[in-house]
Amino acid sequence: xxxxxxxxxxxxxxxxxxxxxxxxxxxxxxxxxxxxxxxxxxxxxxxxxxxxxxxxxxxxxxxxxxxxxxxxxxxxxxxxxxxxxxxxxxxxxxxxxxxxxxxxxxxxxxxxxxxxxxxxxxxxxxxxxxxxxxxxxxxxxxxxxxxxxxxxxxxxxxxxxxxxxxxxxxxxxxxxxxxxxxxxxxxxxxxxxxxxxxxxxxxxxxxxxxxxxxxxxxxxxxxxxxxxxxxxxxxxxxxxxxxxxxxxxxxxxxxxxxxxxxxxxxxxxxxxxxxxxxxxxxxxxxxxxxxxxxxxxxxxxxxxxxxxxxxxxxxxxxxxxxxxxxxxxxxxxxxxxxxxxxxxxxxxxxxxxxxxxxxxxxxxxxxxxxxxxxxxxxxxxxxxxxxxxxxxxxxxxxxxxxxxxxxxxxxxxxxxxxxxxxxxxxxxxxxxxxxxxxxxxxxxxxxxxxxxxxxxxxxxxxxxxxxxxxxxxxxxxxxxxxx
Amino acid sequence: xxxxxxxxxxxxxxxxxxxxxxxxxxxxxxxxxxxxxxxxxxxxxxxxxxxxxxxxxxxxxxxxxxxxxxxxxxxxxxxxxxxxxxxxxxxxxxx
Lengths: 483, 95
Prior knowledge:
Distance between the termini of chain B: 42 Å
Structural class of chain B: mainly alpha
CATH superfamily of the domain at 6-255 in chain A: Amidase signature (AS) domain
Low-confidence stretches of chain B: none
Helix content of chain A: 25-40%
CATH architecture of the domain at 6-255 in chain A: Alpha-Beta Complex
Oligomer: heterodimer
Structural class of chain A: alpha/beta
């Protein structure tokens, strides 16, 4: 059962080939026996899942089941889940049990999905390797000495290791696409405002966006149908109709113009990654798409702009963790000041503290214009680059990241070496554009990701291109050497 | 621009994060590495460019001034490190 896609599992459930209790139990058994090798889950919600599964079986039998009734999912531990610990990968929230569900979690509950647990992640989604998690790093199912990528490394590894058919994830600078690429799965970051951020623990509010992770584009489309939509509780949610993302998956892509940004094929790109990506682009061409070289001239400034804007927003968002109302409080504070200083020093890990300090610096008097305002101006230049490109092309394609999965500790002590792994993914967040990663090859048995970037609210077109590619390739069907 | 240990001490104070003596050097070094990266922004010509805060250039949506949330104090307060009689407890602020 674990090798089936979500769409296949739905057919199986509806045909009565197996029950939701059997299906859920199967994945729970796999998590129990295999996840010690990957550490992809922070919490497993066995009892809750089996209760849900039993209710789903009753609804399926009664014929009043919602669309995805009885199918298992796992949520990144950044989405608040009522009554289920939500840690955000941090000691700060190690004891945090939310009294409410995130809108995304509610949507999947209404669709009838069964929650297997909460997946591991970089602390507060800050990282590209899952090494910053308070709960220990996740191992890449393809290579146990390699990182799964981050920050949604737990969700990506769980799917790759066939411990869950699908998962939720979030992407602030590449946190869905980069781990999807490194683990050989399909992940999609929607347009900013397409998916509600309510109940999703905030890192950088103008960049954060939740999205689906799955084995293929069809499953991702099924999930996005549930996730996307207006939510009055999120003030940046966009009021706009949601199309049926599965309806257009099979559309012919002949005549589509695919923009190839020359800046994404620079000297920093691993030649073997380039080869795999170029091969995939050739396949799109075989299907009638036209490739057109484009330029995104401010691409080299996306990482610098991001590392002002994201830390600045993080320093404001994470000021709520004060040791007073919830979360970690240090032992025996002598006064209020000491409580703040030590609770935050002990509750946050090094990378989170670094970004808060950088953000505080960029926002402080005398530096605001030079850093924060400048970064927001560069952000507009980056967005303008894309607007210009989309006057000429329908979709943009290139590598998701410069290299395949790297070994634990490979980036050393210099944070910038890690930041540069997101060099091709960050711009879509700054511009607010939808983007996705799908498997397009291997280097030494390590997966390579093809990135697609769509115009605003054109998730359906990306999924269409991805699905067509997956109809003529089998990279997404490969599984790491596991039981 | 680069910063020194006294800047880091000030930032720690601003951000309310205690930085221990043994960590201060490594923290200063790594933050300077990040600042060296972001200094590349200064190469961009941004004269006349309007800053972009929301990627969709959206303005804040407002709602009617109506009560929309119910009081859930009894649900929230058990999450506090210390609470008593409906109040959050913190170290003494005023003598």
